[in-house]
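In this supplementary section we document a worked example of the pipeline. Step one takes a protein sequence of length 185 as its only input; no multiple sequence alignment statistics are reported here. Step two produces a three-dimensional model, which step three serialises into C-alpha coordinates for compact storage. The input and output of this example are shown verbatim.
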Amino acid sequence: METTRNHGPKSLRSHNFAATTMGKIHRFAATRATDVATNTKTSKTAGIDGAHLTEEQILAMGEKDYMNPAQLAFFKARLQQLEKDLLKNAGETTEHLRETVLVPDPADRATIEEEHALELRTRDRERKLLKKIQQSLVSIDSGDYGWCEETGEPIGIPRLLARPTATLSLEAQQRRELKQKLYGD
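The serialised model returned by step three reads:
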Protein backbone atom coordinates (compact mmCIF):
# COMPACT_ATOMS: atom_id res chain seq x y z
CA MET A 1 0.00 0.00 0.00
CA GLU A 2 1.42 3.29 -1.09
CA THR A 3 0.99 6.45 0.98
CA THR A 4 0.78 9.83 -0.60
CA ARG A 5 1.46 13.16 0.95
CA ASN A 6 -1.52 15.43 1.45
CA HIS A 7 -1.09 18.64 -0.50
CA GLY A 8 -4.49 19.88 0.52
CA PRO A 9 -5.66 23.06 2.21
CA LYS A 10 -3.43 22.73 5.31
CA SER A 11 -0.24 22.51 3.22
CA LEU A 12 -1.41 25.42 1.08
CA ARG A 13 -2.26 27.40 4.21
CA SER A 14 1.24 26.80 5.57
CA HIS A 15 2.82 27.95 2.30
CA ASN A 16 0.63 31.06 2.22
CA PHE A 17 1.52 31.86 5.84
CA ALA A 18 5.26 31.63 5.09
CA ALA A 19 4.95 33.77 1.95
CA THR A 20 2.85 36.36 3.75
CA THR A 21 5.24 36.47 6.68
CA MET A 22 8.30 36.88 4.46
CA GLY A 23 6.53 39.67 2.59
CA LYS A 24 5.85 41.40 5.90
CA ILE A 25 9.51 41.09 6.87
CA HIS A 26 10.69 42.66 3.62
CA ARG A 27 8.15 45.48 3.90
CA PHE A 28 9.11 46.03 7.57
CA ALA A 29 12.82 46.23 6.73
CA ALA A 30 12.22 48.55 3.78
CA THR A 31 9.96 50.77 5.87
CA ARG A 32 12.52 50.97 8.68
CA ALA A 33 15.32 51.85 6.28
CA THR A 34 13.17 54.53 4.66
CA ASP A 35 12.11 55.90 8.05
CA VAL A 36 15.68 56.21 9.28
CA ALA A 37 16.82 57.78 6.01
CA THR A 38 14.00 60.32 5.86
CA ASN A 39 14.12 61.16 9.55
CA THR A 40 17.79 62.05 9.28
CA LYS A 41 17.20 64.55 6.49
CA THR A 42 16.72 68.12 7.58
CA SER A 43 13.77 70.15 6.53
CA LYS A 44 14.00 72.40 3.51
CA THR A 45 13.31 75.46 5.62
CA ALA A 46 16.47 77.43 6.09
CA GLY A 47 17.49 78.94 9.37
CA ILE A 48 20.50 80.36 11.08
CA ASP A 49 20.58 77.68 13.78
CA GLY A 50 22.59 74.60 12.71
CA ALA A 51 19.69 72.29 13.52
CA HIS A 52 17.68 74.00 10.77
CA LEU A 53 20.35 74.13 8.08
CA THR A 54 19.98 71.95 5.02
CA GLU A 55 22.61 69.68 3.56
CA GLU A 56 22.94 72.07 0.63
CA GLN A 57 23.68 74.99 2.95
CA ILE A 58 26.26 72.95 4.86
CA LEU A 59 27.96 71.92 1.60
CA ALA A 60 27.97 75.52 0.34
CA MET A 61 29.97 76.77 3.32
CA GLY A 62 33.64 77.48 2.73
CA GLU A 63 36.66 75.75 4.24
CA LYS A 64 37.10 78.52 6.79
CA ASP A 65 33.66 77.62 8.20
CA TYR A 66 34.59 73.95 8.73
CA MET A 67 33.05 72.69 11.97
CA ASN A 68 31.72 76.09 12.99
CA PRO A 69 28.99 76.15 15.67
CA ALA A 70 26.19 75.96 13.08
CA GLN A 71 27.70 72.86 11.44
CA LEU A 72 28.29 71.22 14.82
CA ALA A 73 24.67 71.94 15.77
CA PHE A 74 23.51 70.44 12.45
CA PHE A 75 25.46 67.20 13.00
CA LYS A 76 24.50 67.03 16.66
CA ALA A 77 20.80 67.27 15.74
CA ARG A 78 21.25 64.62 13.04
CA LEU A 79 23.06 62.26 15.43
CA GLN A 80 20.48 62.80 18.17
CA GLN A 81 17.68 62.00 15.72
CA LEU A 82 19.46 58.81 14.64
CA GLU A 83 19.96 57.85 18.28
CA LYS A 84 16.27 58.45 19.04
CA ASP A 85 15.18 56.37 16.03
CA LEU A 86 17.47 53.47 16.97
CA LEU A 87 16.25 53.44 20.56
CA LYS A 88 12.63 53.48 19.33
CA ASN A 89 13.37 50.53 17.01
CA ALA A 90 14.97 48.62 19.88
CA GLY A 91 11.84 49.12 21.98
CA GLU A 92 9.62 47.91 19.15
CA THR A 93 11.80 44.83 18.71
CA THR A 94 11.51 43.98 22.38
CA GLU A 95 7.72 44.24 22.19
CA HIS A 96 7.63 42.21 18.98
CA LEU A 97 9.76 39.41 20.43
CA ARG A 98 7.54 39.24 23.52
CA GLU A 99 4.56 38.46 21.33
CA THR A 100 4.51 34.70 21.28
CA VAL A 101 2.46 33.02 18.63
CA LEU A 102 1.80 29.34 19.09
CA VAL A 103 1.72 27.61 15.76
CA PRO A 104 1.56 23.85 15.49
CA ASP A 105 3.19 23.59 12.09
CA PRO A 106 7.00 23.12 12.32
CA ALA A 107 7.58 25.04 9.09
CA ASP A 108 5.67 28.03 10.43
CA ARG A 109 7.58 27.87 13.72
CA ALA A 110 10.86 27.77 11.81
CA THR A 111 9.82 30.80 9.78
CA ILE A 112 8.96 32.74 12.93
CA GLU A 113 12.24 31.76 14.57
CA GLU A 114 14.16 32.86 11.47
CA GLU A 115 12.32 36.21 11.53
CA HIS A 116 13.30 36.68 15.16
CA ALA A 117 16.94 35.78 14.45
CA LEU A 118 17.02 38.28 11.57
CA GLU A 119 15.51 40.97 13.76
CA LEU A 120 18.03 40.29 16.53
CA ARG A 121 20.96 40.49 14.08
CA THR A 122 19.64 43.82 12.81
CA ARG A 123 19.30 45.15 16.35
CA ASP A 124 22.84 43.99 17.15
CA ARG A 125 24.17 46.05 14.23
CA GLU A 126 22.07 48.98 15.40
CA ARG A 127 23.45 48.56 18.94
CA LYS A 128 26.98 48.92 17.56
CA LEU A 129 25.89 51.97 15.54
CA LEU A 130 24.29 53.46 18.66
CA LYS A 131 27.62 53.21 20.47
CA LYS A 132 29.34 55.04 17.59
CA ILE A 133 26.63 57.70 17.60
CA GLN A 134 27.11 58.29 21.32
CA GLN A 135 30.89 58.54 20.82
CA SER A 136 30.31 61.09 18.04
CA LEU A 137 28.07 63.16 20.31
CA VAL A 138 30.80 63.17 22.96
CA SER A 139 33.36 64.25 20.35
CA ILE A 140 31.07 67.14 19.32
CA ASP A 141 30.97 68.30 22.92
CA SER A 142 34.75 67.99 23.26
CA GLY A 143 35.40 69.81 19.96
CA ASP A 144 37.02 66.84 18.20
CA TYR A 145 34.15 66.03 15.84
CA GLY A 146 34.94 66.26 12.14
CA TRP A 147 38.69 65.78 12.54
CA CYS A 148 40.51 62.56 11.62
CA GLU A 149 41.64 60.59 14.66
CA GLU A 150 44.69 59.32 12.79
CA THR A 151 45.96 62.37 10.90
CA GLY A 152 44.19 65.34 12.52
CA GLU A 153 43.00 66.53 9.11
CA PRO A 154 39.38 67.43 8.35
CA ILE A 155 37.20 64.42 7.57
CA GLY A 156 35.13 66.49 5.16
CA ILE A 157 31.51 67.55 5.07
CA PRO A 158 30.43 65.19 2.26
CA ARG A 159 31.82 62.17 4.16
CA LEU A 160 30.18 63.29 7.41
CA LEU A 161 26.86 63.80 5.65
CA ALA A 162 27.07 60.27 4.26
CA ARG A 163 28.39 58.76 7.51
CA PRO A 164 27.93 61.06 10.52
CA THR A 165 29.84 58.65 12.78
CA ALA A 166 33.03 58.70 10.67
CA THR A 167 36.20 59.15 12.72
CA LEU A 168 38.74 58.86 9.90
CA SER A 169 39.26 60.84 6.73
CA LEU A 170 38.63 58.97 3.50
CA GLU A 171 42.35 58.47 2.87
CA ALA A 172 43.02 57.22 6.42
CA GLN A 173 40.07 54.83 6.16
CA GLN A 174 41.34 53.49 2.84
CA ARG A 175 44.80 52.93 4.34
CA ARG A 176 43.29 51.11 7.31
CA GLU A 177 41.17 48.87 5.07
CA LEU A 178 44.19 48.08 2.88
CA LYS A 179 46.23 47.10 5.95
CA GLN A 180 43.38 44.90 7.17
CA LYS A 181 43.14 43.26 3.78
CA LEU A 182 46.89 42.63 3.56
CA TYR A 183 47.67 41.72 7.17
CA GLY A 184 44.30 40.75 8.62
CA ASP A 185 42.72 42.26 11.70
